[in-house]
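Bug #77: duplicate submission created two jobs. Keeping one. Sequence:
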Amino acid sequence: MLTQAERVLGDEHPYSFDALNGLAMALKGRGDEWKRSTFTRGFLRRTQFLDRVLWVTGENAREGYIRLHRPELMTYLERSS
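Kept job's structure:
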């Protein structure tokens, strides 16, 4: 799914970030060692996307993006410490 998302949508598409995060969570759920590098890749890509998008969106859209992706940020911060 990740390879297909990146091929069809590109590395910088939000669905590709979701595919990376989904892969990291699936590996974790399967009992594999937490794949921090996989999750970090998705998180960094989303951060770059938000850096490009948030400054041109309205306040409501910015708040929506932040609220929507807060759980991802919290998971990343928990795993990074």
